[in-house]
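Much of the work behind modern protein science is quiet bookkeeping, done one molecule at a time. Below is the pair of lines this work produces for a single protein:

***
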Amino acid sequence: MANVTEGRGLCVAPFLQRSLFPSQEGYVPGRFCAPVPSLEGSIECCLPCPVTSWIYSDSFETIPKASNWLTVAGMACTMSLLVSYLVLPVEKTSRHYLTVCFVIAVCILQLGFIIPLGAQPEQCHDAITPNDMSSDLMCAFSGACLLAGGFAAISWGFLRSLSIHLQICWQVVPGRKLFWSSLLAGWGIPILFASIALARTGVSYRFGDTCHINHDKALQDYWGPLLAFAAVSTILQFATLGYCIRVYIRALFKDDGTSQSSLGLPSNNGSVKTVTAGQAYRRVQKAISVQWRGIVIVVIIIVNVVFLAVVFVSMDNTQQAVLQNYGKATPWLSCLVTNGGNKNMCLDKVKGLATPEPEVMAVLILMSLNGIWTLLFLGRASMIPAWIELIRNRFARKHDFVSVDVKRLSALGRPYETIAFPPPQSAYTPKMPRAAVVTNPSSLDGDTIAALSPQSQKDYFTQEAKYVSPTMSFSTPRPPSSGRYQGREWDPVNTYARPWSPGTGKGGMI
């Protein structure tokens, strides 16, 4: 307060003399000063910084902070959505690169409102000058996130609208070329325009702890291109909606089962012209049932960002009109002097000099709700049981398999490995007498050999099997043809085998 009193100079309360603050740091065009006649000539007197504390009521200061904390809840929603896209399978989240990039853009936009909560920046560089990105680093970070995130949200909303329009209206399936083109345009264009806006226009503390774009060249550098993308995206949305309504009306009146194919005319199933109204309606209905959440959230983000742009453009125009014609602000300034700087007595005279307080409050609240809307419309109910299953499988105790016999036999007081069990007997091996179990072949007697001979056992392999020909079979079993071996005789000389004599049983094999 001592600095304010020393800087008052020849000005009356609550104004401060501009010449006593020669520093050119901070956002000098953000000062609200007006020439005032005095005994020493014309001097410039300025309102103390921040100017919004004189224009709006005392409760206005709590609105930016409340919206920033509401943005924290929105950030938690969007981050949970991104983690779900990363961890959960695609059939549970229905993730798509257009959706993921759109959510990331919303997160960047929210960072512009969250950064000031942790940094607690100083809005004013001195008693009459607000800080800007050159005098405060946190202002640069929050302003860059706000500009880049807002433009990125509009860009990815435009790309989603374009993709849906191509699929529904033109039956074009997005491929790899559209994927890489979307990534390049979706992130390259926002970075380009945000860099241009920061270099040519800059950001400063205009109201609240978040830095917003300045009014100088803001319309042509940032708001103009942003509103152009939003307008094209809106046109695509309405064009797609109009096509869906047209297909629905055609399905009501022309889906009577008659088509070119039913009339006996040649048709091509791959041609769009031969698709009946009912088939087109079912195709459009399926596409809308899958994409309606993305369409709604894109429309919401576009409306919020456009509302923010309109409010700021209106604020810039009002401020420039007042600075060019101080006569409009004379009743309000005179009221402040008369009441000794009591702004509450002069709030009714601020109308027409600044953007109404309810509009500023509305735009801040709507911007802070973007993360919550994103989770509500892009989140899936299937994510909840998927997370439960993932956590259960991750932290559940894994039990090893334990046989029931181990628990039963452990009560005997002996280890499981020392318990002797009789060897299992095969169901296909007949039981043999104890005399047949020998360890020395020389100890076998005649009775034992007879018991083990094949003649003493039932022969199951000499029975003749009868072939039953299947009903639909046109083949019969045939013996091996002897023609294959005609002309081939066994010559013992060529094989060096001894001739075989039937009488002696000696000789080589044939």
Notes: The beta strands are 16-17, 33-38, 41-46, 203-205, 211-213. The two ends are 127 Å apart (CA to CA). The mean pLDDT is 78. Residues 358 and 470 are 91 Å apart (CA to CA).
